[in-house]
Amino acid sequence: MQSAEIDYQVFKRKICSKTGLDLSSYKQAQMERRLRTLMERSGARCFVDYYQMLERDERLLEEFMNRVTINVTEFFRNPDHYAVLEKKVIPELLRRSSQLRTWSSACSYGHEPHSMAICLQEALLKTGHTILATDIDDKSIANARKGQFPIADAKNMPAERISRWFKQEGDFVVAHQKLRDMMEFRKLDLLKDRFPVDMDLILCRNVVIYFTEEAKDDLYAKFYRALKPGGYLFVGGTERINNYAEIGYLTPYPFFYQRPPK
Ligand SMILES: C[S@@+](CC[C@H](N)C(=O)[O-])C[C@H]1O[C@@H](n2cnc3c(N)ncnc32)[C@H](O)[C@@H]1O
């Protein structure tokens, strides 16, 4: 092994024991490139040096975590795909079960579970649907739990939807209590933690792009087992599950994978 490779391997091991974050399941070339710019900016000469700086400086550690976990998100990301969700998938699921269990599995700042909560509320004015919203990043979860978003973030929702589900407070919009009551927020690392079970719908969007092929295969098989028969996995707008048939999924609509109904 070359010394640059050893340096990165040692860094990965140290980061894993300090933060629990396993960088080996993230694509190495891409991750190394992203971290190298941070490392060079901090003045470190190699990753092991950089690790020592992270140990001493909370702010640098936070910057590192943010770079790894890229939190970019928005309400109703890929509106066309949400339209399929609202017109096809949710009505089908509601025919099977009146109280749906949804999991937003990399929820970032909370735009995704809030979009989901709106879809469910508008599908049928029924109560009892639940949304589990998880992410690896504590800060994102804390943000998501507050249900408060910069007003500019709401721009891709029709005004009528905004006024129905949010209250304006200064430069922010705050989610209606009805939405917030449906959601439970929790930290969960998709690469190593136990998955919840009996889900009607799982959203896993715009996170696997950073994972290795093996990590993805494993993840999609675990989602399959976490779904009820007939349940759906909703993936990101650039994502495909190559071996979906091998795992057992059907794919009735683009970007939606279904565990076959019983
Ligand atoms: C680009 S955001 C996607 C947010 C949302 N799903 C969407 O599509 O708008 C990626 C999220 O994945 C989270 N993430 C990265 N690695 C993760 C892991 N191993 N387990 C759980 N979440 C992870 C990040 O913290 C970040 O909030």
Amount of beta strand: 15-25%
Q: Classify the helix fraction into a percent range.
A: 40-55%
- Separation of termini? 51 Å
CATH class membership of the largest domain = Alpha Beta
Number of helices: 11
Indicate the mean pLDDT: 93
Q: How is the biggest beta sheet arranged?
A: 7 strands, mixed
Number of domains: 2
Task: Give the cofactors and ligands.
Answer: S-adenosylmethionine
- Main-sheet strand order equals 6-2-1-7-8-10-9
Number of strands: 10
CATH architecture of the largest domain: 3-Layer(aba) Sandwich
Instruction: Name the helix and strand elements from N-terminus to C-terminus, one letter apiece.
Output: HHHHHEHEHEHEEHEEHEHEE
Low-confidence stretches: none
Describe this structure in words.
By secondary structure, the chain is an alpha/beta fold. It has two domains: 3-69, no CATH class; 79-258, 3-Layer(aba) Sandwich (Rossmann fold). The protein is built from eleven helices and ten strands. Strands 6-2-1-7-8-10-9 form a seven-stranded mixed sheet. Strands 3-5-4 form a three-stranded antiparallel sheet. Strand 9 (250-253) and strand 10 (256-258) form a beta hairpin. Helix 1 packs parallel to helix 3, helix 2 packs antiparallel against helix 4 (58-69) and helix 3 packs across helix 4 (58-69). The model has no long low-confidence stretch (mean pLDDT 93). S-adenosylmethionine binds next to loops.
